[in-house]
Amino acid sequence: MSETIRPVTTQTLSKMAAKGERIAMLTAYDFPTARLLDEAGIDVLLVGDSLAMVVQGHETTLPVTLDQIIYHAEMVGRAARRALVVVDLPFPEGQLEVGRTLAAGARILKETRCRAVKLEGGSEQAHRIEALVTAGIPVMAHVGLRPQNIHIDGGYRVQRDAQQLISDAQAAADAGAFAVLIECVPAEIAAQITAAIQVPTIGIGAGGDVDGQVLVTNDLIGLTNGYLPRFVKQYSDVGGTISSAVQQYAAEVKNGNYPGPEHQF
User: Fold this and answer.
1) Domain around 55
2) Which residues belong to the active site?
3) Binding residue per annotation — 244?
4) Same domain (yes/no): 95, 191
5) pLDDT value at position 1?
């Protein structure tokens, strides 16, 4: 008999953090990638608004729409048997009236198999987090660098205001967030945030003294063109492998070596 798969839940993450077990989280935007990550044991899959940059080729995360992120989330949700799938609330669904944020979160849970949303912001988003959680929509908060704030912050900058960052994370946790993602924050401050709040912390460019880590999968596997942030570690060169395979295919088509007799009916 096959082993029963126990899906990761928000409560699972809390128990892992309490026991000192690190949480592994990656982005996913399609069925085959999500299936591979899920089978490899990733705890949390994030259908991030980063798909605007990684998949759609935009310069920021702002252009991706709610309909588009639901389209990708539905694929990821069907692939994940174990991992908790979290979906970004894209701009401006988390910045307008609370009713719109609730409607967007509800659509994500109703139209996909995903079980939580992620909302950028801390203290100023506490009322939205509370409203979502009260409505039965689990929320992962996001503090530190907030890509949806790119035009306010003037770029992707390391966030160093420890007092504000701790206050944001605490407000999000108090409002009911089940976890807090911390992006581009000095390791010492991220450690202070982790010590100050009672929910798991997930870092990206936030050092090792957090409860888990997240990366953009395309960065991790070497399928990203251009600049890579300092905090990224590439574990493979999938882009190079694809390029080499395609070049070999094109050459064999042009010189007549493909298809060979073994590839014909």
Assistant:
1) 10-234
2) 183
3) no
4) yes
5) 42
Per-residue model confidence as pLDDT tens digits over 132-185:
999 999 999 999 999 999 999 888 899 999 999 999 999 999 999 999 999 999
Q: Which whole-number Å values give the CA distances from 210 to 21, 152, 181, 229, in the listed order?
A: 11, 27, 10, 19
Q: How many domains does the chain have?
A: 2
Distances in Å between the alpha carbon of 118 and those of 18, 89, 193, 258?
22, 6, 18, 47
Q: Using only C-alpha atoms, what is the Rg of the chain?
A: 20
Q: Is 88 annotated as a binding residue?
A: yes
Q: Which of 181, 163, 184 is nearest to 172 (CA)?
A: 181
Per residue in 24-54, pLDDT (tens digit) is 999 999 999 999 999 999 999 999 999 999 9
How long, in residues, is the chain? 265
Query: Is 21 one of the annotated binding-site residues?
Result: no
Distance between CA 180 and CA 169 in Å, rounded? 7
What is the token pair recorded at 183?
A: 């992006």
